[in-house]
Amino acid sequence: MARYNAWQNKQLISVIKVMQEDALTQDRGAFFGSLLSTLNHLLWCDQIWLSRFDPAFPKPEGRDTELCPTGAAWCSARQQCDVAISNWAQNLRQDDLDAELTWYSGILQRDATTPFARTVVHFFNHQTHHRGQVHAMLTSAGQEAPVTDLIFMSEDG
């Protein structure tokens, strides 16, 4: 799933880096409004989960939808985060997945504990969920939306 995430984001980056900023920030009626706000939310959440999985990874600062002010900044931060996700996933072991994870939930306003494996599934499912929204917004903006079918990912991602 880390490889799939990186593949998907690599495709998105190729589209985002050539789009005009006004097209990225235009409110498209999605839950987070614009493409950039949705992409920022997803990146922010990936960073917050990584900081929970590995305390050495820094927590994101500021509001989730305002993490990166431009498409170019998002592309750079996204690539860095995907490298971190891949490195983390390569070092993940069954013992880790069999444990529980406790973290402070801003949504619940308290500590939460879940099986680590379920949390990892949530982490990757959350990415897929929001990339679906991004796909729809890109299509409505007249952009070429990336191929998302896992079956079409090459062996090298």
TrEMBL record:
SUPFAM superfamilies: DinB/YfiT-like putative metalloenzymes (SSF109854). The keyword Metal-binding applies. Keywords: Metal-binding. Pfam families: DinB. The keyword Metal-binding applies. It comes from the Bacteria. InterPro entries: DinB, DinB/YfiT-like. PANTHER family: PROTEIN DINB (PTHR37302:SF1), SLR1116 PROTEIN (PTHR37302). Belongs to the DinB family. This is DinB family protein. It comes from Sulfitobacter indolifex HEL-45.
